[in-house]
Each structure stands twice: as C-alpha cells, then as structure tokens.
C-alpha cells in the first residue's frame, strides 16, 4: 500500500495486543468491575472533575446514537445523555445514579426502546444490578430483571422480531448461555444450545425476524429460528472478533484472526477480502453498504470499497473505545474515548474530528 495507506507490517504491530484483548473480551467488564470495587471502596470519586463526564478515572463502556440527535454514553460511573448531537450533556442519570453502565442497545423496530446493563462501581451503591430498559430514548429507566435471577449478562442485543425482544449472553450457563426475552427483558429462556463454548457477540440481521449470527474464538454460526438451532459457518477457522452490517441484505463484515471477511448472502458464507488487518471492532454506515470502519485501541481506518483497501483517519490522542454512526446523517460518526471519558464527532465531508466534550 502507498500514500496514506498503512503498511501491513505496521498494522500487525498495532493489532497483536488488540487480538489478545479481543480473545478475553468477555472478561473485560468483569475485570473492570472488580478493579472498580477494590480500588474505589477506599477511594471514592472525590477527585477533581476534568469534564462533563467526571474525573479522569472515568471511561466509556458503550455508546449509542439514536434518531433526532440523541446520544447515550454508558460509563464506569453512570449514564450520560445528549439531545443535541453532543453539544450539551446531562448526567449521570438520576435513576441509575453513578452505577457502572454497559452494553447499550436499541430496538430496530422502535428506537425509543433502549436496553442497558448496570452494576455497582462503588461499595456504597444500593441500586439493583441487572438489565434496565427505557421506552423514551434513555430519559427514564426501569429495572427489567435482576442479575440474581437471570445470571450475569455480558452482552445484550435488541432482537429483530419485536421491540420487546432482546438477546443476551450469560457465560455461566455454558452451552445454554444464549438467552432471549420476548417481554422486554423481564424473563429469559434458552432457545437452544450454542455450537461454541463461549461467544464474543451477537448480530441480529436487519428486517429478517429470527435470523442472527454469533461469533466466537472458534468461528461463527447462524440461526434462522431465533437461536433454537445453529449452523456453523464455513470459512472461519479461528477467532472472530466482531461483525457488522449497514442494513437489510447489505454486506456483512467480519474481523478476526484471518483478517477482514465479507458475506453477501446474509451470513451463510464469508470470503476473505483483506488479510493484513485485524480490527478489534467494525462499524458499518447506514445507506453506504461498501463503507466500513475498523478500529484499534489507537487508530481508526476506513474502507470505501467493501473492505478491500483501507485508509487511516486522522489520529486522536487517547484510548479509542466506541465508534457509532449517526442513524440519520450517514456522513457523521461519533467516537468515545477513555481516561478521561470524552466524545468526538467525525464528518466525512471535512475529514476532521471535533470535540463534543465540554470542560468541567
């Protein structure tokens, strides 16, 4: 590759540590929670605020962009919300206090229906640990189910059959750890056994009720009946870190040990399109099926030809966490950073980052 394209050798130096992190992805929030409890029980967050998201110790776990310029950022110390595309922020949410929040997801059938996970980041907190849901785009929250009843969930994803459907993964349940709720997260059942010991993520296919993919350290699998039965996808012979798609019948992109792979038959098969990158996360852009972004801990890359070639975006200082597209403005993306928590906006037209993080 020439010009702005990063060399394969340089990329491999960047990706090796990310691969190690990805293999342990399901342990990250557990470790984060453990470190938070042990360190913060004796040192409550009384340090000086550095910005609207609190102290320099705060960091982002998840971010979600909703229609009408609504942004939600789930952090180690509470949930923050913007109603003007990041120009101003409110939070932490009073109903959730400053509990650790993570794994934000909204229903593709009703974007106002949002789900998140919450647990304690401080020993003094008393809020219930478990799955919370909002019916007003994250303004208010209600406890849907407690972790004591469902088991500790490490990932939640809104389903594609109804706004009340949500998928989750509970590692302690083993092969039956993939669970689904049809009543807004109040009750969960296991529809069928997984083909893998553990999974790293879930991708419901847009506007294809009951059809979804799961990916893991051992490959990927597909279900056409909401997880009751699974078919292992050929073409994967090692770990798959992340999957994404921009819309119904659009290409599905996967990143793993092999590189970047693409499916053009709704996830039934994948082919390798780029072997010199191993991104920890991929982000597809609605309305632009051939455009996809790849993220490492320090850099973001963009492909405009379906993953065949990649170009680096301007670099930002900090730990890059969550990259999400604006659901209504395809040229705009949002990025969260950690230590301290911050949010930036990227506009494809001017190819520049703009900070959306007010000072303290």
From TrEMBL:
Domain of life: Bacteria
InterPro entries attached to this UniProt entry: VPS10-sortilin (IPR050310), WD40/YVTN_repeat-like_dom_sf (IPR015943)
Keyword vocabulary terms for this entry: Membrane, Transmembrane, Transmembrane helix
TM region(s), chain numbering: 12-31
Protein name: Sortilin N-terminal domain-containing protein
Organism of derivation: Dictyobacter kobayashii
Taxonomic path: Bacteria, Bacillati, Chloroflexota, Ktedonobacteria, Ktedonobacterales
């Amino acid at each position: 590759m020439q010009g702005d394209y990063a060399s394969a050798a340089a990329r491999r130096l960047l990706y090796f540590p990310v691969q190690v992190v990805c293999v342990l992805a399901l342990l990250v929030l557990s470790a984060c929670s453990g470190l938070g409890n042990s360190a913060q029980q004796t040192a409550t967050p009384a340090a000086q605020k550095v910005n609207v998201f609190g102290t320099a110790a705060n960091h982002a776990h998840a971010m979600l962009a909703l229609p009408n310029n609504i942004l939600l950022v789930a952090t180690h110390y509470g949930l923050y919300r913007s109603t003007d595309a990041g120009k101003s922020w409110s939070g932490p949410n009073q109903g959730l206090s400053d509990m650790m929040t993570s794994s934000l997801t909204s229903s593709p059938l009703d974007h106002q229906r949002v789900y998140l996970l919450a647990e304690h980041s401080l020993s003094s907190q008393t809020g219930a640990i478990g799955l919370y849901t909002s019916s007003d785009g994250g303004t208010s929250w209600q406890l849907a189910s407690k972790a004591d009843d469902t088991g500790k969930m490490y990932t939640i994803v809104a389903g594609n059959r109804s706004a009340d459907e949500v998928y989750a993964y509970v590692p302690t349940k083993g092969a039956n750890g993939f669970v689904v709720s049809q009543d807004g997260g109040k009750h969960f059942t296991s529809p069928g056994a997984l083909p893998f010991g553990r999974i790293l993520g879930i991708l419901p296919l847009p506007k294809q009720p009951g059809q979804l993919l799961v990916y893991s350290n051992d490959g990927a699998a597909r279900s056409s009946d909401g997880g009751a039965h699974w078919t292992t996808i050929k073409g994967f012979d090692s770990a798959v870190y992340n999957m994404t798609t921009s819309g119904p019948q659009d290409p599905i992109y996967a990143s793993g040990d092999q590189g970047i792979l693409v499916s053009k038959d709704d996830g039934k098969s994948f082919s390798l399109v780029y072997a010199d990158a191993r991104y920890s996360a991929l982000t597809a852009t609605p309305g632009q099926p051939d455009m996809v972004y790849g993220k490492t801990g320090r850099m973001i890359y963009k492909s405009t030809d379906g993953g065949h070639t990649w170009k680096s975006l301007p670099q930002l200082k900090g730990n890059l966490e969550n990259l999400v597209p604006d659901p209504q403005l395809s040229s705009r993306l949002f990025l969260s950073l950690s230590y301290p928590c911050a949010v930036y906006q990227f506009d494809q037209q001017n190819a520049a980052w703009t900070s959306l993080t007010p000072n303290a």
